[in-house]
Design goal:
about 80 residues; alpha+beta; two-stranded antiparallel sheet
């Protein structure tokens, strides 16, 4: 991930903040994760448990074992 838009103009790899639970009112360390814009976009309004099983995640090798600890913890309680 990168913090700024790359020179080639692709924002897929730009770092963004994603709400783990899709509620913009919940802004705390347990509900915010850093991810690339492509992952953020692919999750959209899906539940985390549904997103982790999506075609996007399978295609990109994303699983409950490869995500950040904060996401692993959220999956355990989902």
């Amino acid at each position: 991930m990168t913090e700024q838009m790359p020179l080639n103009g692709h924002r897929r790899s730009v770092a963004t903040w994603e709400h783990i639970i899709n509620d913009a009112r919940i802004i705390n360390r347990e509900n915010i994760a850093r991810c690339c814009a492509a992952c953020n976009s692919s999750k959209g309004t899906k539940k985390l448990s549904d997103w982790i099983q999506s075609k996007y995640c399978k295609k990109h090798g994303i699983s409950k074992d490869t995500v950040a600890d904060i996401v692993k913890n959220a999956l355990k309680t989902a």
